[in-house]
Specification:
Strand content: 15-25%
Order of helices and strands: EEHHHHHHEHEHEEEEHEEEHH
Shape: elongated
Number of domains: 2
CATH architecture of the largest domain: 3-Layer(aba) Sandwich
Distance between the termini: 36 Å
Helix content: 40-55%
CATH class of the largest domain: Alpha Beta
Structural class: alpha+beta
Amino acid sequence: MFDLFRVGFLTVTFSDILDITIVTYIMYRLYKILKGTIAAQIFIGLMIVLLLSFAAQAANFKALSWLLKLVTDIWVIAFVILFQPEIRRLLVIVARNPFFRMFVKAESPQAAQIIADAAFELSQRQHGALIIIIKSTGIRGFTETGEIMNARLSVALLGSIFFPRSPLHDGAVIVKGTTIEAARCTLPLSTTTSVNGENLGMRHRAGLGISEQADVISVIVSEETGSISVAEDGQLSKGLSKEALRNKLSKAFKNPAVKGWRGIFEHYTKEK
């Protein structure tokens, strides 16, 4: 690789510029994702230590380099242990990228219709419900907290599960494709306790919480009001009609792989 210029005893090549640009972009994106969390402050401190370590190695300070490397290694391990939620959120964001979703099988549109019909019936009866629909990667750890069913998805079965006197009505139902994987599952609660000045109950916080940590859609039916809500990507939409719910689920189930690279282009064009 040809030399671009020299800075003292350092020779800078095109590959060096490209390397620094890529690393800078990655660091910037990581900071943007972690911004506003406690992890962001630790991340900045870790970057400072890494820069000092690089400078010490360039100046051939062997003792200082060894000390900084030791601190960096310990800090990275502590970062992974203490900030698992933020790291999990980062991996979920990567998994939601349309490029990677190309290789994920799209969900059946039939499932969207069944869940919309079931949610509307439960809403009419004011039977509380929490239905988690897996979009891409599974959530086996949460599935195993409930009763494994592996049953065919149907309106009647969802109605039976969430009947108030049913032993399975507490907790969440987890759906993959046209299969109910488990019922009465325990989910993590979101730290968000209110939306637009309205307090959230445990069912809504659980539906919102799992959407923050995994690539899923949560359909929530309020037991008090019968209103239907949807949580996706950590955002809660409330007061949906049956048709609005069906359209939202159908749209979420659509996969960029259906349209190939054109679908990815359209996705980013719409975002911008």
